[in-house]
Structure prediction request, 501 residues.
Amino acid sequence: MSTTEIIIDTPLESEVAAYEEKGGVFWYDDGNLNVRDVARALNSVGARFITITTYELPANGGFRFEYHWDLMGRLLGFTFAVAGNTIETIYDLCEAADWIEREVHEEYRIDFTGREYQPLLLREGGVCGVNLQKEVVQ
Amino acid sequence: MSYEIPMGPYHPGLEEPYKLSMICEGETVRDAKLEIGFNFRGIEHLAETRNYIQVIALMERVCGICSFIHTLTLCQAMEKLTGFTPPPRAQYIRVVMGELERLHSHVLWAGIAAKLMGFKTMFMTCFEIREKVMDVLQAISGNRVNYSMNRVGGVNRDIEDPQSILSMVDALEKEMTRTIIPIFTTSKTATSRCAGIGVLTTEKARSLGVVGPVARASGLGQDLRKEAPYAAYSEMDFTVPVVPDGDVRARLLVRALEIMESCKILRQALSKMPPGEVVCGDGKFNFLKLTASTATARVEAPRGEVMYSVSWKEGARNPSRVHVRTPTYVNMPSVRFMVQGARLADTPLIQASVDPCYSCTDR
Prediction:
């Protein structure tokens, strides 16, 4: 059974081995999760998408994305590590991710595959990655 | 024939620097596009260059109205990193400050909404009351805007005489019950101007993930003070107003009712405030001894959920990442759907009904 199925099938109060509560978040991380499967599963149980926190890994090691969702007041966290700078979009599954993905795209030059972007925070001539990426490729 | 009307980033109908380009047919808005980032400050990047004391002062400047809430959320995240638990009295003081800030924000919003309705007398009344709320905040913290109240492990200043603050709150509540609340809940002038415009359905609100009074005015009963209580909220008795209509009037009603609930919470917090210290231990912690870790905290700000993720590297003086998710950032995309089908003349009021904060959005 995947972690995603466990979330749906398990009442919140019972103990779930697949998560770890740490730093105020219930982390679900079995290493095999797919960002779109998680979004579909959480949509189906009425969870609310909160945000994506992005971390640039040292020595060009790619990025770590933490997707946060709220389910009945419980803060759920899902971690996805990517070697490059692409990850699948969830915008088509979750409207709330639109501005968040656009912001991460502009801050870190991340390409959310399967969607188009319109400028959000950047003005004309602005370079993606200038704000938070450690080494900006012009 | 359709035409585009740009509103903003500098426009008398908008209090904030963003741009709403509306596609209109006659006087009716068919669609709209939002542009933000005109005042982008790069605070998340700046936070990586500040130490554990400086970062609190920096994050207080994310928003001029919810400055306490931002430091509260940051400090709660940093308390999770350090293992500090603020003493009960500090938790109560945090509730008092948080609710006063909610009153300040809602009354300020009521004034702006009244002005956009063409109700100038009400605007003046709201701003007069807002001054009195700020007097209470000043009496507690010594400051009117950036209060410098929060620290990791507690608060910087005690409320030495809660009874004197309580009498100020009682006077405030009496005045609001006499003026703002009846006008915003029963006055035909106010409610008819707002009824049926800028509708955000429950389904759309859920899909867009909106938070705070915008969500509660669309029938979503979410409030972190109830669902995931922090500080001393679990010890407070209050209700979360929810109105299902989704229009500007519903947002008006929710905020008016929340003002009353805030007064109720304030009375409880001030009268039940436990004795004791206001900071955990001696309040000192060596962040250089932290092992690499990340912590997240959420708080119900006047406009909705604020979330901070704070990440620390081992032996570092500064945080390696501070991510801020503000309520306006998720509420604002809903304006596009609220204005679809609306009359052009109603759009400033519809936008204001979200209570947008671009200081937060362009953080």
Notes: Residues 15 and 352 of chain B are 8 Å apart (CA to CA).
